[in-house]
Amino acid sequence: MVLFNVSRVDTTPFDGQKPGTSGLRKKVKVFVQPHYLHNFVQASFNALTEEKVRGATLVVSGDGRYFSKEAIQIITKMSAANGVRRVWIGQNGLLSTPAVSAVIRERVGADGSKATGAFILTASHNPGGPDEDFGIKYNMENGGPAPEGITNKIYEFTTTIKEYLIAADLPDVDITTTGVTNFTGPEGPFDVEVFDSASDYIKLMKSIFDFESIKKLLSSPKFTFCYDALHGVAGAYAKSIFVDELGAQESSLLNCTPKEDFGGGHPDPNLTYAKELVARMGLGKSEPQDEPPEFGAAADGDADRNMVLGKRFFVTPSDSVAIIAANAVDAIPYFSTGLKGVARSMPTSAALDVVAKHLNLKFFEVPTGWKFFGNLMDAGLCSVCGEESFGTGSDHIREKDGIWAVLAWLSILAYKNKDKLEDKLVTVEDIVRQHWATYGRHYYTRYDYENVDAGAAKELMAYLVKLQSSLSEVNEIINGVRSDVSKVSNADEFEYKDPVDGSVSSHQGIRYLFEDGSRLIFRLSGTGSEGATIRLYIEQYEKDPSKIGRLSNEALAPLVEVALKLSKMEEFTGRSAPTVIT
């Protein structure tokens, strides 16, 4: 039993320690400043009620990015000093964000203990390394991100903090080996348990999906599979799930060794950054040497996002959640008794709306931020939800879940092919095209302008709000650009009143809604660590079966031209092209 003491360390506030819905994200060089991480952690303890700290069990882990190992030791020592009873750490400090949510909700310690919250160390899909990004966020006892009331309190405490508590003489814990280390401090025992990162999450997945049917699909010589973890934390789960449990070939795994710098890549699962997977799936600029696999998928740094691909075929995230919802009851045992409801973020295409209407399901349109889905799920109103930013999930946890989405798609493929494994396979493309034939197609694209001057970005958004006061002027501009584009019938800033707690979220995105169901949406994103990111969403709904097979860029070209001219994008930002097109 190792003894430790508690020290009170004087400190001063930092500017800009305001966590958003995704936590606090900054460059590593900011986090390694003396007291910077300590201030945020102490402010978090101060913002929580006493019973969620003193005597509590906390999870401390993340995606393994650079500075995570040091941060885990600091948070562990501060937890001990603040009266936390035990800390749970995933082996090697690795837990995906969805796995953290699962551990909070499902894991029971040997002594009967349950976690009441977690510090998750991730900057999600942002790059890692000494010159790149780090992040931290706090999740609550429901497994979901801290609500705005808590994040606002954390920020308030960071502006006034004068000291933090730390058990500076507590030895560093070996996080490479599973087991329990016992300590004793002024207030009694303090334990640190390092546990297997994957076992709790795999147990949960096996309770949701029919692994045997997926295994049968993967064993078919006609079905080929590829999964790219982009050197993120999904690699800690990929072999156990896809190879050991489901029987996939180990050669089907790409970049599944977690690395502090994600192998020098950008761990964002889209057509721009998942280059190796995109090329292997036949969607690169040149034809691959080998025949592409039937199914491919990728994860981001903390494994809460996903990209789904078929052979030479991209599935938009908006279509993906709609297709999962449309097939969930038949294909996924967890949903066999029916869906409680479905929800999407406002910028996500309306493909899910059409499914909800067709199946007579409750439907919700919420602001961007997973906490809004969490409220609906906690109230029993939502089973499946998704965001256009490659986030898909269900009420099994309170975070989006990239591997869950991949298993959902494999389940749908297994269901569609259960009597056809000897015949021609029903492919990813077949499933999507059949969905369009049934529900119509939502042509959709997103333009991201990253690291734009923050002042210029705000000026552009203010201009778009002001322009909304005169729809006649808007339509005059549009007609001058493209006379073949429908008129705008309504324009606003999206506002959401939460049906569960009554809270109101304003200024959630600028919308231009057209008479034919098309939409243009402009948002500022807070997920980057410097500058601003402007996101432009362009959507057109097509019900005519003879027109659902067009190339997306061709179908959307008129609206894209209108959006860029209407917003004066190049004039405000100096950018002649977006950083990323999805």
TrEMBL record:
One of its GO terms (cellular component) is cytosol. InterPro entries: A-D-PHexomutase_a/b/a-I (IPR005844), A-D-PHexomutase_a/b/a-I/II/III (IPR016055), A-D-PHexomutase_a/b/a-II (IPR005845), A-D-PHexomutase_a/b/a-III (IPR005846), A-D-PHexomutase_C_sf (IPR036900), A-D-PHexomutase_CS (IPR016066), Alpha-D-phosphohexomutase_SF (IPR005841), PGM (IPR045244). Monomer. Residues 17-164, 200-309, 318-421 form the Alpha-D-phosphohexomutase alpha/beta/alpha domain. Belongs to the phosphohexose mutase family. GO terms for molecular function: magnesium ion binding; phosphoglucomutase activity. One of its GO terms (biological process) is glucose metabolic process. Catalyzes the reversible isomerization of alpha-D-glucose 1-phosphate to alpha-D-glucose 6-phosphate. The mechanism proceeds via the intermediate compound alpha-D-glucose 1,6-bisphosphate. This enzyme participates in both the breakdown and synthesis of glucose. PANTHER family: PHOSPHOGLUCOMUTASE, PHOSPHOHEXOMUTASE FAMILY MEMBER. Its EC number is 5.4.2.2. This is phosphoglucomutase (alpha-D-glucose-1,6-bisphosphate-dependent). It catalyses: alpha-D-glucose 1,6-bisphosphate + L-seryl-[protein] = O-phospho-L-seryl-[protein] + alpha-D-glucose 6-phosphate; alpha-D-glucose 1-phosphate = alpha-D-glucose 6-phosphate; O-phospho-L-seryl-[protein] + alpha-D-glucose 1-phosphate = alpha-D-glucose 1,6-bisphosphate + L-seryl-[protein]. Its cofactor is Mg(2+). Pfam families: PGM1_C_vert_fung (PF24947), PGM_PMM_I (PF02878), PGM_PMM_II (PF02879), PGM_PMM_III (PF02880). Keywords: Carbohydrate metabolism, Glucose metabolism, Isomerase, Magnesium, Metal-binding, Phosphoprotein. SUPFAM superfamilies: Phosphoglucomutase, C-terminal domain, Phosphoglucomutase, first 3 domains.
